[in-house]
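so i finally got all the pieces together for this one. its two components total, 528 residues if u count the protein bits. some of the lines might not be protein, just check the labels. i wanna see the whole assembly predicted at once instead of chain by chain like last time, that was a mess tbh
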Amino acid sequence: MVVIGNMEKPYLGIDIGGSKIKGVLFDSRKNRWFPVFNVKTPKNKKDFLIILDREIDKIIQKKKLAGIGVGLPGVVDLKKGILIKAPNLPFLNNWQAGKFFSKFKVKTKFDNDSRCFVISEFILGAGRNYKNIAGIGVGTGIGGGIVINNKIYYGKNYNAGEFGHMIIDGKKSLEQMGAKRAFLKYGDRSKIIGIGVANIINILNPEVVILGGGGAAEGEVKIGIVRKIAQKYIVSPLAKKTPVIKGKLGENSQAVGSAMLFRI
Amino acid sequence: MVVIGNMEKPYLGIDIGGSKIKGVLFDSRKNRWFPVFNVKTPKNKKDFLIILDREIDKIIQKKKLAGIGVGLPGVVDLKKGILIKAPNLPFLNNWQAGKFFSKFKVKTKFDNDSRCFVISEFILGAGRNYKNIAGIGVGTGIGGGIVINNKIYYGKNYNAGEFGHMIIDGKKSLEQMGAKRAFLKYGDRSKIIGIGVANIINILNPEVVILGGGGAAEGEVKIGIVRKIAQKYIVSPLAKKTPVIKGKLGENSQAVGSAMLFRI
């Protein structure tokens, strides 16, 4: 599936996820995008690089790009373009993504995939009217991103927002219990996510919590259960009123946010 | 114990804690302070108000104050001066502190007690050289405060930094397991606090984590254990290097920070 349309010098946004690699073309002037590829993530590095190369090459052959933005599934060294740690795709630990992309001769930016979801929701989606946002991306893993005072909050090492690695049950993390890989029923996973949401509200007291990522887009995250459980554990009566909502950009939010990395 | 010294128009900082009520006088020009009272927190509201009134009155009789800053143990409505919820002193739930203090005819400001600890460490203590700080106050309860980009981060309802209410063990919170009231051995409490520190670093990726409050000042919090456990659960190899240190202002840090509420 490659539909290029009549965009002039669009950005290519790529979301490298635990189960899918998705691409969108994004017209930065008109805030329009459409999907250009959606393939299964191969289970080893060699096939992964072949597939990624092929999909990008198909686009480049047809369209001059303004830039490529890449959302990576894990701890990212943004400046060096290294995926330091990929908990759900361990064959990509320490992947020198920057080096790989240099061959396309197009300006490329990298960020964590869940932060890309938050960027797209903040700029164009459910977070448009807020300046303090916590976003939780639920998919194969669980990640997140934080907007403070209208700016993405990166933290010292550009690693802020790793909500999934919060320990919430003795030795088990939110991701281990609440993500796809937990193999629990949707309802039980939503309860776990509700506890995670309460923790985040108690810590950050944001204006809004946005749930996104593949899990939320595909309906695995039951927002009613999440809200109910979160209510129980939020300590501030004022903060209990924090809206907990789903993202608006659906399954492409991470790829769209990746394409927007040149705009933040 | 009332030693007034030769300060001119000092601020009075009051730390209302689960076990002690402490007061310091603070000279804002010279950044000097000294303790002026330290009494046990009564177990009912009537005695509490009598004691608080008596201690403040003794100071006011001797010295003209520039202002009074009060650190309250729980969820605070800063603007209205209401202690909305005091988990460790439930008889103070919904206490109209602003009304009580109005009788002293001195400008008064209120904040959460652990945030006051972070303010003092940020301005004068272990956080002086940092602009992104997470501070955890360990005492009868566990609270916290956040500095982002050289400013105290309050969140939408002024309730950000409630680290103690983070669920870390199924249904139990960091405070329930790690604070004085948990009645666990110091070492076991320090392990729990280590998990809390890892969670905070994974979420906020601050430049430094500062541990303070009575528990840290009195040596109940074993910093070596906290660091070791935190290392285990921090996901980013870069963030594993985050310094985790004790506050420098000791047991008076909350009262000193309360006196500094006029400076932030």
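Chain B touches chain A through 45 residues (CB under 8 Å).
Residues 186-204 of chain B form the longest helix (19 residues).
anyway lmk what u think
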